[in-house]
């Protein structure tokens, strides 16, 4: 059986963002379960605003799309900014439009885990819902478990979400196993 490639995209431009750390933790679980992993956060997704006519002239955008094309499953994470996802993550997802003519259009049939972090439950949950809506529009299959992490609470948000991260990654890998069967 082919080793699955799980790609995580999102986070912020801060080197140690809560969202980036959660994405890293999710990929560590995937690697522990035998997946090949790629993290694209911060500068790796800091593209100019989406402009379809010019985007493919940018090497960084072409690399991003090539990585997505090689993915078997995705994990998308965003901080909650004003009740929705960040502009950085939204702009990266807007560039997926350039995959509209691919054999696998957008994220068609791909399992997608979702992580939303925010300094309160309301922003985390509304961001998670916005991510689900976008993934549906891009023909992806959001996992039943999505993670809304309240980073405003005391303690380690990653440790608090460990069992959810494991369940979400397990759902991605289970979906891939079932799809291959």
Automatic annotation (TrEMBL):
Domain NADPH-dependent FMN reductase-like: from-to ranges: 5-145
Superkingdom field: Bacteria
MF terms (GO), sorted A to Z: oxidoreductase activity
Keywords: Flavoprotein, FMN, Oxidoreductase
Key word Oxidoreductase present: yes
InterPro entries: Flavoprotein-like_sf (IPR029039), FMN_Rdtase-like_dom (IPR005025), NAD(P)H-dep_FMN_reductase (IPR051814)
Keyword Repeat among record annotations: no
Xref: PANTHER family: FMN REDUCTASE (NADPH) (PTHR43408)
Family listed: Belongs to the SsuE family.
Protein name: NAD(P)H-dependent oxidoreductase
Organism, as annotated: Stakelama marina
